[in-house]
Each structure stands twice: as C-alpha cells, then as structure tokens.
Design goal:
Layout (H helix, E strand, L loop, with lengths): L1 H8 L5 H28 L6 H26 L7 H22 L4 H29 L4 H20 L9 H8 L2 E2 L2 E2 H19 L1 H11 L1 H6 L4 H27 L10 H11 L11 H20 L4 H28 L1
Length: about 350
Amino acid sequence: MTNARSSAGNAPSTPANAVSKLLSFGALPIVLIICIIIFQIGNPRFLSAPNVLNMTQQAVYLLLIAFGQMLVLLAGGFDLSVGAVVALTSIVSAKVMVAVSLAYPDAPYLTITAGFLATMLVGLACGWVNGFGVAIMKVNAFIVTLATSSIFAGVTLVTSQGIQVSGLPRDFVYGIGSGYFMGLPVSLYFAVPAVAAVFLLVRHMRFGRYIYAIGSNVRSAVVAGVNINRYLMACYMLCATMTAFAGWLLTARVSSGEPMLGGEFPLQSIAAAVIGGCSLRGGEGSPFGVLLGVIFITVVKNGMDLLRIGSNYQMIVFGVVLVGAVVLDRYRLERAAKR
C-alpha cells in the first residue's frame, strides 16, 4: 500500500494539475508580461525610461496603501475607507503646513515636519476608529469601513469647504513631490522604509504569525493565547497610517491639498492585494504577491492612459479585474479544500 501511494505521488503531472499550478502561482507574472508586450506594441513609448520612471512614481502611492490593505486582509477584514483617509490627510496636512509656514516663513523643514506629524496623527486616529468598530464593537468590517469612509469624507469636505488648499512649501512640492535623487523619484526613498517595515512585520516577526493565525481561524488563535483585539486594532491602525503617508506624498505630487483625492484607491488596493494572492477570507497572502499586484495595476493603468482609453472605460476594466481577482480567490479556496 505504501509503495502504491509513493508511486501515485511520483506520477507525472496531468494537464489539469499543470493548469491548476499555473492559475495558482504563475498566472499573474505571465499576464503581466503579456500586458507589457501589448502596451509596448500599442505605444513604443511605454517602456521608455521617462515612462518607466513615471510608472514607478505612480506605483509608490498604491504600494503603500496596498501593503496596509494586506495587513487587514491577512487578519480577515478589509478597509474601504482608504480613499477617504487619503483625502482627509491631504487637507489636514496641507492646512497645517500653510499655517506653520505663515508663522515661520523661513523654516521650510519645520513646516514639512509639522505636516508629516499631522499626517501620522490623522492615520492613527482613523485607524483607531476603524479598529475600535471591528475589534471592540464586533461590527462587520464592511459596515464599519463603509461608514467611516462616509464620515472621513464628510469631515474632509466640512474642513476644506470643498476648496483645495494651496501655498505649500516649495521644498515639499518640488523636493518630495516631483524631485529625483540618483535618477529615482524622491517619494520612492520615502516609501521603501515603510514597505520594508511591513515586510519584516509580516514575514519575520511574531506579529505576522499572529495575524495569519487570526485570519485563518479566530478560535484557534484565541486558544493559542493571541490577543485578538490588540492585533486587529494594530492592523487597522497600521493600514490607515500607511494610507495617510501615501496621502501626504500624493499631496506633494499634486502640489495642493485636494478634498477629492484618492477615490480610486479602495478598489485598486483591494484588487492589487487579492490579485497578488491575498484571500478575502483572511490568513493567506504574501508581500511579494502584493508587490506583483501593484505592478500589474500600475502597468494596466499607465498602458491604458498611453493608448488613450477613457477614464470611464478604465473604470470598467478595473471592475472586471476585481471580479477576476475574486473568482481566482474562490478558486484558491476550493483547491485548498480539495487538498
């Protein structure tokens, strides 16, 4: 009996098994390569150095938000309020920087630091509200983050009266927003440490093991002695803080506080994470997969822009991409159940 099982285990892979492995592990890189080839044929400027740098800068903001979204997804939730957090951060940080620059006109770095501290406070506050609703009040994450998205958007509009905030420091706009260092966008140097910290948390620290456990099976995590509420709160606060940081960098890029900024990020961040292997049911996913998902979303968006595909059609494409990601997630779950 043992020999029979061993022989069966060493049998050549069937076409069905090959397709299964391709869909589970290799589909995204292959589709990404196909998209790059198609966009390059459609517009030879797609792989030019200026456009690659442009895509790198575009990817920075989504990368930060998607990595924050990944933390929440791993713990079995998700965050629909990231777009509203970006807009709220943009307005609050811009107003703080304008106020400080008026009080201290010859201290641009003090102004930028004040805006950054305001950004962190906004992120922590928004994350605490989301975490409190999910972890302490035990309300479904969809309801909580949908409600807080409306609340944060309302606070943004009340604070800004629907008007953009201009007059930001030149060092902030031209140094961080559109500056380059050693041929790479300055914003990338700001984002890499934050992304690396999340990677270390997830892959090499107890925090990562615990949120995987919570997302996989809450009851087992409780039996193992994991403080569920503490780690859920931490996930939502980290997600909102990463999102606020992205909002601050994006404010530098657009050179003003924008009350309508970030509306596309809820869809794109969830799509990037799920396409990259994160499960909507929690407990599954990796930072490398999310990175690939962010690259894919950025390539598709930039390629459609170069091919002059209208924003309305782009919304349809991203909706289809998200549906495809959900179908793939369901396929992974069924395949795991068969195992």
